[in-house]
Write a structure and sequence with these properties.
Strand content: 5-15%
Distance between the termini: 7 Å
Number of strands: 8
Structural class: alpha/beta
Number of helices: 9
Shape: globular
Helix content: 25-40%
Strand order of the largest sheet: 1-2-3-4-5-6-7-8
Length: 273
């Protein structure tokens, strides 16, 4: 599995080449850029070109981008609504789509190949209306992303609307063959279980988000600091027709000392080998 580091680990900081160097030195072969304006300002041509120039001279691959979750620099703390593609209000769905497309346009200069998107928020329920909104959003995003050379991946969350079973219902009933899935192992560990999620999603898994928890809440711990059975998980993933990229997505609020982060990244990748 290709070792990829999500810049979610550095979300409190502006993304700059020095942080990408840490990823490269720690065994990552690619990065997933987390599109949060205070971290990676995808509305800033200057910021985009700064990173594009660094990637052009580095073997580290800009593997993927995580779509924005909020349209502001405060992650919603100042009251901005979440980027929600299945919001009941049409105006908010339109705003969410515009925000994600704005981030996607960075692929014109930073050649990432995949875009990970959330459908809704953790309390969204499953309904025919949710399915309709999700289908419309994914069709539109897939069409917008294709000319940029990007494939859209929809992520399983902890909501009823985004269980592995319901994601597969959306993809199969709408014949969304151009959309795949990002299997978030931490979310699957909470429900319905990692083995069941892998069994349901199978060959549609385009990448996995790797982090740990204790099965109750989304903690984004380092692998081994929670209760996920990593040997069994890795064996199951390696049994897929095409082993997916392993994207290490560690919490930015764990307050690890800066000096230990490269070693922890390297040890995590070794655990997944």
């Amino acid at each position: 599995m290709l070792p990829v580091l999500s810049t979610h680990l550095f979300l409190k900081q502006r993304l700059h080449p020095g942080l990408l160097e840490i990823a490269a030195r720690s065994g990552a072969q690619g990065v997933e850029i987390f599109a949060a304006r205070q971290h990676f300002d995808y509305t800033s041509r200057e910021h985009i070109m700064e990173l594009a120039g660094w990637f052009a001279s580095s073997p580290l691959e800009p593997f993927s981008m995580h779509a924005p979750l909020y349209p502001d620099r405060e992650m919603g703390r100042a009251g901005a609504p979440a980027v929600n593609l299945v919001d009941p209000e049409k105006s908010r769905r339109i705003d969410a789509m515009d925000e994600i497309k704005r981030a996607l346009e960075a692929a014109e200069h930073i050649p990432f190949k995949k875009l990970v998107v959330h459908l809704g928020e953790k309390y969204d329920s499953w309904s025919l209306r949710t399915m309709e909104y999700a289908t419309t959003a994914l069709e539109h995003l897939g069409a917008f992303a294709k000319p940029l050379g990007v494939r859209v991946l929809v992520e399983n969350l902890t909501s009823d609307a985004t269980t592995p079973e319901h994601l597969m219902s959306i993809l199969e009933m709408a014949h969304l063959d151009q959309i795949d899935v990002c299997l978030d192992l931490g979310h699957a560990h909470i429900a319905p279980g990692i083995a069941e999620a892998i069994g349901l999603l199978g060959k549609r898994i385009g990448e996995v988000h790797v982090h740990d928890n204790h099965g109750l809440k989304d903690e984004h711990l380092w692998p081994g600091d929670g209760t996920i059975d990593w040997p069994a998980t890795i064996e199951a993933l390696k049994g897929l027709p095409t082993p997916p990229a392993a994207v290490l997505e560690i919490g930015y609020n764990l307050d690890d000392a800066p000096g230990v982060i490269p070693e922890r990244i390297q040890r995590s990748f070794e655990k997944l080998a």
